[in-house]
Write a structure and sequence with these properties.
This protein is mainly β. The protein has 4 domains: about 100 residues, Immunoglobulins (Immunoglobulin-like, Sandwich), CATH 2.60.40; about 90 residues, Immunoglobulins (Immunoglobulin-like); about 90 residues, Immunoglobulin-like; about 70 residues, Immunoglobulin-like (Sandwich), CATH 2.60.40.10. It is about 0% helix and about 55% strand. It is built from 1 helix and 31 strands. Strands 2, 4, 5, 8, 9, 10, 12, 15 and 16 form a 9-stranded mixed sheet that branches. The longest helix is centred in the C-terminal third of the chain and has 4 residues.
Length: about 375
């Protein structure tokens, strides 16, 4: 018995056809994998070539490039690992078999990256007159615009700031020669391109003895009210602050002295609660660190409203005699006394009235000479 096998030879070739073409543009992300793909058919199954700027791509010239084919879906892939600026260009693919070839549309490829800090700037501490140098490294595509900011505004060469940016390495540098305390504080480096923005903020610490930014000011307060003294110092390392009253150290006391510090403004505050006359005097704040010392002082005047300890009393007098009206008053500062008769001010004169000014103990006197019925028939 013989077995018979039948072979069918398909001599019908079909030229390649692209069933899914390239888009007109693609955008890739720098340092990430970038993939282009097309779909196509033909008989026999076509091979695929990829071109960049009309030059064929091969994996032998660039290890980052891979070519893949999925025969189940008739898809052809160009894979570029760690894409970079050199991959920007015009790409095209070509399918080829024995029946001919077909080219895809051309696609313009753009590689982009939002700015990122490869190396961040670092906080720095210096002595005055030294040179400050802060640098960082930025990766971005297209190239980032770099700006150094102080309090939200670009730094200026006229204030001693020098800035450079190396476009090849992405290194941005800020230099300050002969640095002073005016350069101390937070500084921000901002990198931006069309894709996005990145920024980092660092602190410039300048070692210095305490510097007075806001002095104490003389204050006047009415008794039983709170008194507030505020001052501000700048120093590095941070100064120790001691408050004094008439040269003697003060410390926080419940219901009397409240001492506080606001780190955001470098302000120091002393609150004297329910101020009394005995609180009158000189208050000072002394700032000290390992590099030096400074202080500020101010006077507190406590005001006490006038108050009669001994007032006028109704008095009977014989005509033609002399009478003395005595009072005693307290107040800070010392009050002035005005004598009135029937609501009108009395002036001293040699014939009728003699006014004795208030003394240091608060005593004052009005002397009425040669009293007549007309003089006494009134209120004083």
């Amino acid at each position: 018995m013989f077995a018979i096998q039948t072979f069918v030879f398909d001599n019908h070739t079909i030229k390649p056809t692209i069933t899914r073409d390239l888009n007109a543009t693609y955008i890739g992300v720098k340092d990430e994998v970038f993939i282009l793909s097309i779909s196509g058919t033909g008989n026999p199954t076509p091979t695929c070539q990829w071109f960049k700027n009309n030059t064929e791509l091969t994996s032998t010239t660039d290890e980052r490039i891979q070519f893949k084919e999925d025969k189940t879906t008739n898809e052809y892939f160009l894979i570029i690992k760690n894409s970079n600026q050199n991959d920007i260009g015009e790409y095209q693919s070509q399918l080829t078999n024995a029946a001919g070839f077909v080219k895809s549309k051309k696609s313009k490829i753009t590689i982009q990256k939002q700015p990122t800090f490869i190396r961040k700037p670092e906080t720095i501490t210096l002595n005055q007159t030294e040179t400050c140098k802060i640098d960082c490294q930025i990766d971005a595509l297209p190239q980032a615009k770099v700006t150094w900011l102080l309090a939200g505004k670009p730094v200026s060469p006229k204030d001693g700031y020098e800035t450079t940016f190396d476009t090849k390495t992405g290194i941005a540098t800020l230099t300050i020669k002969n640095i002073t305390t005016k350069h101390a504080g937070l500084i921000t480096v901002k990198a931006e391109n069309a894709i996005g923005t990145a920024e980092e903020t660092v602190n410039i610490n300048i070692r210095s003895p305490p510097i007075l930014l806001k002095p104490l000011t003389d204050t006047e307060v009415i008794t039983n009210n709170d008194t507030t003294f505020i001052c501000a110092f700048q120093s590095s390392p941070q100064a120790n602050i001691q408050w004094f009253y008439n040269g003697k150290p003060l410390s926080s006391l419940p219901n009397k002295y409240d001492i506080s510090y606001d780190s955001t403004t470098n302000q120091y505050k002393l609150v004297i609660k329910n101020t009394v006359l005995d609180d009158h005097g000189i208050y000072s704040a002394q700032a000290t660190n390992e590099l030096g010392q400074t202080q500020t002082e101010a006077k507190l005047n406590v005001i006490h409203a006038p108050n009669f300890l001994n007032g006028l009393q109704d008095t009977s007098v014989i005509a033609k005699e002399t009478i003395e009206l005595n009072i005693k008053v307290i107040g800070t500062p010392q009050p002035t006394i005005t004598w009135l008769k029937a609501g009108k001010e009395i002036k001293s004169d040699e014939k009728k009235y003699s006014i004795v000014p208030i003394d240091k103990d608060g005593n004052a006197k009005l002397i009425i000479k040669d009293v007549s019925e007309e003089l006494v028939a009134n209120e004083y």
